[in-house]
Amino acid sequence: MTDTAVRPAPTQARPARRRSPRRAGDLTSYAVLGALALVVIFPLIWMLLTSVKTDADAVRNPYALPDPPSLEAYQTLLLSGQQPIFLWLWNSFAAATLQTVLILVTASMAAYALARLEFAGRNIVFGLIIATLLVPPVVFLIPNYLLVENFGWLDSILAITVPGAASAFGVFFLRQFFLGIPPEIEEAARIDGAGDFRIFFQVALPLARPALATLAVLSFLGNWNDFLWPVYVLLSPENMTLQPGLAMLQGAFRTHFGIVMAGAAIASIPVLILFAFAQRQIVDSVAGAAVKG
Amino acid sequence: MTTRLSRGLGLGVAAALAVSLSACGASDSSEGGVSGEDYDGPAVEVTFWHGWTGGAAPTIVPKLIDKFNAEHENITVKNVPQEWADINSKMPLAVKAGKGPDVAVLHGDDLATYAAQNLLQPADEIIEGLGYSEGDFPPDVFEMGDFRDAQYAVPWSVTPLGLFANKDVMKKADLTEVPTDRQGYLDALEKLKAAGVQGEWVDGYVFTGTFEFQSLLWQFGGDLYNDDVTEATFNSEAGVEALTWMTDLVDKGYSPKNVAQDGNIKALLAGDTAFNWNGVWQTTNTAFGDLDWAAAPVPQIGDEKAVWSSSTHWVFPANKGQSADETSAAATFVKWMNDNSAGWAETGELPAANTVREDPTILEKYPNLEPFMEQLDYAHYETVSPGINEANALITTAINEALTGKKTPQAALDDAKAKADAIIEQNQQKYGD
Amino acid sequence: MAIDLAATTAVPADRIVGRPGGRGRRPAARRRRTLIAYLFLAPFLALFVTFVIVPAVFGVWISLTNWSPFRDSQDFIGLKNYLDLFTAGSTTSADFWNSMRATGLFVVLSVPFLVVVPLFIAVLLNRKLRGATFFRTVFFAPYVLGVAIVGVIWSYVFDTQSGILNHLLGLFGLPSDTPWVVDTPWVWVSLVGVTVWWTAGLNTVIFLAGLKGINTDLYEAAALDGAGAARTFFSVTLPGLRPVMIFITTTTILASANMFGQSFLLTNGGPGNETRTAIMYIADQGLSQNNMAPASAMSYVLFAFLAIISVVNFRLQRERSEKAAS
Predict the structure, then answer these.
(1) Superfamily of domain B161-307+384-431
(2) ipTM confidence
């Protein structure tokens, strides 16, 4: 799905209307959008500017431009070794990827079964899965903590990837998608003698690629943004992901704004660069999920 | 179950030390201190949790640890610094899961809580091995590690509150001397107000409003809890006087309302205020730079001399499946740190051991520490009782509510006392008697 | 892929499976089908049962005991934890209901902005302007950063003395000492503001997609009828967005009710405990103070509230859309 003027069926190909009396309206729109964009961008710029101040400058002259500009904050952070931001970035990336893979694998198979296969107890299983969508995550917080501790997973990547990998939303979303595939394609494969697994892997999954991509993006973002759970189950700084790590950094350097902003900068720049490259896929995925789900 | 295990390990460590240690007198550094063998077993890694994330500590601690690791082939200490609050929220469950550290530093007010939950190994034998006893530390510090007739901690440092003054700002009101008593302090604040300066910014946070409140409470002759810590007493007349003094600072115009966390030290650094009650650790704040500042004992506002102080102690967590080797190596580390603790003053904490602290070279190098050392004779330390910090949190809430004008000091303290009492009772059930 | 999924929800599940004969086949084949289905389901169910079903039940059990992680055996105490929550004077009830109040207040304050602002932006972006993609990207970017980065940056911007916001306000002659993250009512402004900054882009993108799905014929018809911008908006745009609106309001309410990071990083629940949300309180009680049993009970009470609200919200919107359709 692109953002040009394409309409989905039933309407087709109307030329875009030129509304000349709207000229002034267009300018206003640009002005408003521009102002809003400024509100979004300005804090990020301010973060960058603060990060290139010396410690004393940042604390004593918070409003002025850096004088002199200095990479002292970055040096302190990167050389001290106690705030391993790049490690946190990597941990976040690894955890999000791992959980996304787990979700895609488990949810796609489960969704296919629920959409396409008749079996005893199907409605009960589906109902149970859907029912859990309403339950706030905090209900699972304490019991899962005890479980994870029991398994010996505390302070490891398993703790922040496996428990959340059972995605009821993923199952629901993919099931909707599978339901919408015309059965004729699978029928044809079945007549050719393919069994259920074959049909799933060679027919259904390939067709589901857009939905899988969407789910992948959503799951990745969800794990990336996870804050409450990692704060409690990750204990050593070197195992932390970005969110609890940054919270820890803010606590450790509370009044040293230059350093805290440098930390935020180190954390956000790679993310923003990645986003700039993948933004179309990401944004389209999110939009697609909501509208079609 | 854990008690027997931890005592067993404690005895194991004691055996190891007792065999190797010769007669130990006071830890007199000139005699080479505690002699005896260091840990002698297979190579181990010792995880060390602490909360020294501010000031000069982030540079000094790793250096000390590196030095230790270099001198000890078979021990590697792993440095894990994190916020003190984070340690407290994670360590109990981590120790229970076997993922806690082999050695940690805790504040005095946490010791009883951990000990009561069998999370610490008794340290009696280690202390004996180091040759420490009560008299080697400032009054009341050693006892903080006492819980049900066993010692669980080795004192390391003490960190009292003090008065930080920005002399440039003081000059604006023609003040040359830092005030020492109530009248002098009020006069100074009034002069500063006339010169357009809000002289002391008071805040409603643990750092440092609560510390200031407690100092004032003790100065007015009150106390936080009764002797056996079964009831909260901070809403007494003394408490109300103390909190009213703080709200008066706002009412009289000496402090803005709604000071943010750390707002007061920032204001001091930026030249917006003259005085800040803050801890000795701020003496190493690099943001002071070339500012003309001075530290002094807190003024005596009340009838008695008193000031808040915290203390840090070494503890040996009783992790599930704790290895005796690792504990033994940790004890070696603690011993070594104590022997090499002269440089600790650089972090802005006062070494607890009297002989180390009273060494004149410390004051030569760090003259700013003198006013803090002076106060140790009348410093009050934190309450020792399992789970007490849950009750202490209510004091901060009360201060916050009074300073933001939501409740009168009496009402705020009364409400806090009621809840604190309920929590104390709950603690008694939770942690047993 | 030219699959029109718009009709998806209308097709009942058990009609899709195009197998002649359907049910009532030989039992052996049926058993085999069931076995295969459960094989498909097995990986998911393994995780689901272990980390969703078991904890849910386990949590109920914990809430009925005096659970302590430092004891080997726990005692069953029935509904006491729940009753305590409704008994004035217990150690938990005042704090719990305060935290629920904070959560409720945040939901009520934030959801309208999180719906209206993105809708407004989406409508603007839908006007075939150049650079719509650029703006869309910019607005979405904060969401990708994560709550911690957002919280850390805004803590600094909102700082009473050193924050750039107060400084800028001062330059314009407005009060420059507002305690954005220190005192009420400003803390709510800050929390809502940051949440909008962080997640408005998400809702914007979804609204935009929804807007594109509205039949342009309807707009033309409205224009021919002489409808102005406002009337067009209310009679064409909004109705066309109904399903998307249901989705957004539901998810936004749930997200706001589960707010944790912003309170934790910006205000730390302050002043006092004014902005300490239910999640913050439950997590602190359960995992830091080790009061696991009362915390579990609290989480189920919160669940009950959210379930009721979600069902009500869903019913209300369904009714409205059914009424509109008829």
Answers:
(1) Periplasmic binding protein-like II (3.40.190.10)
(2) 0.83
